[in-house]
Design goal:
CATH architecture of the largest domain: 3-Layer(bba) Sandwich
Shape: globular
Largest sheet: 5 strands, parallel
Mean pLDDT: 95
Low-confidence stretches: none
Strand content: 15-25%
CATH superfamily of the largest domain: FAD/NAD(P)-binding domain
Number of strands: 16
Bound molecules: flavin-adenine dinucleotide, iron/sulfur cluster
Protein name: FAD-dependent oxidoreductase
Structural class: alpha/beta
Number of domains: 3
Length: 463
């Protein structure tokens, strides 16, 4: 293939479903590459001496190397290499905010269009599995150690993968009835279909990882019991305390919290109803979502698919300063979401139920010492936006379990679990990683934390 592929063949994402069709379906948007398109896109890589994409990828995937293997149609080798650094490559390939990570750092991003790294990462595993490939079960003999993992989200799965490969006996507990954490009970299927996670759980089981679901540690089984039965425990329990707005009217009927809404919708689709997170149908409603992150985008696009008649996102900064993935903002807009930037909510209006939101315009002030520009209210710019339902999606605070203190697990001033560089908590036999340690972040950073914590555990156990 040519040295100038990046000029001769432009960046091209795989086909995606038509926006009108998407408005009625929870299917994934992107169809994925076929072999021919994948090879053409992979061949655009410049193989720059210093691969910035690798540095920017939190798990430091060997990106240029697996791109070259795609070009040479050595897909099974690419898959094996991709699994050396990432436990969930086909999942990260789908839902990482690549524009801020690997693709944002690609040299070609400066004028030519970055290599489509995410879609190609997804392609490798999909194509390899389609050819009958599967990740190798560990070749090492059992090391005689047993580790319990609390939480089957990305952090727990990353940790289980590395421990299992090292010959450790691993049992992953989760309070939910399926593996995946927020991948399953949070992120909607139009970004990540649930069958993809179920297949990954099966691959991990085939490699030797065991799961015990519907088991909440601290309720169904005590931490004391885990510490009796296992040599070490890894906590990957996530962050689940929804941030509040703190404005009047927040408790009116018609106010909805983002995560229970999304979970109720997924449970309905999976036919796994739960009275604690009931299905909320927004068909025919005027919906306003407050917030500008991934969770807000997912609520907006779920409401569209449920048949809401008007769906508006009100965010207090401008579009450039939105925390959500640019790609998902663009997809939301295509699907009919209306965006109101630089708007801060002051009050939820309504008597017996929500009738609207009082908003004020904002402008961004000077950057603070961390470079973040805070919104300042513009006097006299208030407006009322009519709504039947308002969803609050302001993110999540840590939700440490009440039993941490009794086991000597210390927290920082924000409620995140404190660890040393080996991910070891103040209880030497307990390790922690993912959102509960970093605060709410990303799937790929949680995977990275879990994998690195596994190495800390192996060092501690001396195997
Ligand atoms: C709506 C939404 C959309 C998102 N979209 C994206 C995206 O597009 N891209 C991206 O990279 N990131 C996204 N994120 C963030 C990402 O999902 C998280 O950063 C990631 O899942 C964190 O992984 P984790 O393993 O730390 O925690 P979690 O995924 O939260 O997993 C924690 C697990 O621990 C279990 N658990 C907790 N307590 C107990 C207990 N006592 N006993 C047993 N089990 C327990 C929970 O049931 C859960 O399964 C999104 C988050 C949300 C909420
Ligand atoms: S894991 Fe995420 S950041 Fe890393 S290469 Fe894959 S898509 Fe890019």
């Amino acid at each position: 293939m040519s040295h100038f592929s990046f000029i001769e063949g432009p960046r091209k994402d795989p086909e995606k479903l038509d926006a009108e069709q998407r408005r009625h379906e929870f299917r994934e948007l992107y169809t994925g590459f076929d072999l021919g398109s994948a090879r053409l896109q992979a061949d655009r890589c410049l193989h720059c001496g210093n691969p910035y994409c690798e540095w920017k990828c939190p798990v430091h995937n060997y990106i240029p190397n697996w791109l070259q293997l795609i070009v040479e149609n050595r897909i099974e080798e690419a898959a094996a290499m991709s699994h050396e650094t990432n436990t969930l490559p086909e999942i990260c390939g789908r839902i990482c905010p690549q524009d801020r990570l690997c693709e944002g750092a690609c040299t070609l991003n400066d004028g030519y269009g970055a290599v489509t790294i995410g879609h190609l990462e997804r392609f490798i595993t999909e194509e390899a599995i389609g050819r009958g490939w599967h990740p190798e079960a560990p070749r090492r003999t059992a090391n005689g150690k047993r580790v319990a993992i609390v939480g089957a989200g990305p952090a727990g799965l990353g940790c289980a993968d590395i421990l299992n490969r090292a010959g450790t006996e691993v049992l992953v507990f989760d309070r939910y009835p399926a593996v995946g954490g927020l991948l399953t009970f949070g992120i909607p299927p139009f970004k990540l279909e649930k069958a993809v996670i179920a297949r990954r759980a099966q691959l991990l089981e085939d490699m030797g990882v065991r799961f015990q679901l519907n088991t909440e540690i601290g309720k169904d089984l005590s931490m004391t019991q885990l510490l009796t039965d296992y040599d070490a425990v890894f906590l990957g329990m996530g962050t689940y305390a929804a941030k509040e707005g703190g404005f009047p009217g927040e408790n009116l009927p018609g106010m909805i919290k983002a995560l229970p809404y999304l979970i109720g919708n997924v449970r309905q689709l999976l036919d796994l109803p739960d009275p604690l997170t009931p299905y909320i149908d927004l068909a025919g409603k005027r919906v306003v979502v407050l917030g500008g992150g991934d969770t807000a985008m997912d609520c907006l696009r779920t409401a569209i698919r449920q048949g809401a008649v008007q769906v508006t996102c009100a965010y207090r900064r401008d579009e450039e300063n939105m925390p959500g993935s640019r790609r998902e903002v663009a997809n939301a807009r295509e699907e009919g979401v209306h965006f109101l930037f630089n708007r801060q909510p002051l009050e939820i209006l309504g008597k017996d139920t929500v009738s609207g939101v009082r908003l004020v315009e904002t402008r961004l002030g000077d950057p603070d010492p961390r470079g973040r520009r805070h919104p300042e209210m513009v006097a006299g710019s208030e407006q009322v936006l009519a709504a039947d339902v308002v969803i609050i999606a302001f993110g999540f605070d840590p939700s440490p379990a009440p039993w941490f203190a009794g086991h000597g697990i210390h927290l920082d001033e924000r409620g995140r679990v404190l660890t040393n560089a080996q991910f070891q908590t103040s209880n030497p036999r307990v390790f922690a990683g993912g959102d509960m340690r970093t605060g709410s972040d990303l799937v790929v950073t949680a995977v990275d934390e879990g994998r690195r914590a596994a190495n800390g555990i192996l060092d501690y156990l001396g195997v």
